[in-house]
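Friendly challenge for the regulars: who can give me the structure tokens for this chain first? No prize, just bragging rights.
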Amino acid sequence: MTDFSTGVTAALLLAGATMTWLGWVLLPSRIGIFFAPGDLAKVHARFRPWIWLFRIHLFGHVVTVMALVAFGTLATEAAVRVVAWPAIAISSAGLLVSALAAAFYYHFGAWGALDMAGKSENDIVNFVGSLRVTTEYVTCLVRFGRVFFGLGQLVLAVALFQFGLGPVGTLGAILGLAAMAVTLGFPDDLDYYMPIFHVNALWLATIGLALLT
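First reply, four minutes later:
Bragging rights claimed.
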């Protein structure tokens, strides 16, 4: 039977993975790398579902950080903690940076949808244009978050092997390398990362299920 600490860790992993993934997949409309004039009308059309699902997505990042820290406590008495904790630290930094980047799209998507409702097309175009320079900076945060989490995954794979989760560790190492390669190799097309995002959610949920069993 799973003990309390392992059960809590597994529950947090499953919750974090589910919230992050479902919050994004179920969004009524998604904003691309840069805001487009038509995005604000789409957000306004289904405003409440959009903001609540985006909030779930954002909270999923935070719950996943909690899950990783909880996982690290399971290794407190083991020598592998010297690998697990650095990996968790850099993975958590990546998740929080990613959450900050996503919060930019959440804030300006919601505010813009309300503020630009009923405004002329020229006003909307000017508003979207005013976000261009700031968004250029935010895309750097997106890349940093993905690379940092990928590096953390790669190192965490060693700890997972020590926990007897070899297959999950192997997948984590592959995902970490893929995330860094895609993000650094194709910096101008962030959509290449999306398949990795989906598999990452499955990877985190699989660790949770593995701990339960």
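The chain is about 80% helix and 0% strand. The two ends are 8 Å apart (CA to CA). Your move, everyone else.
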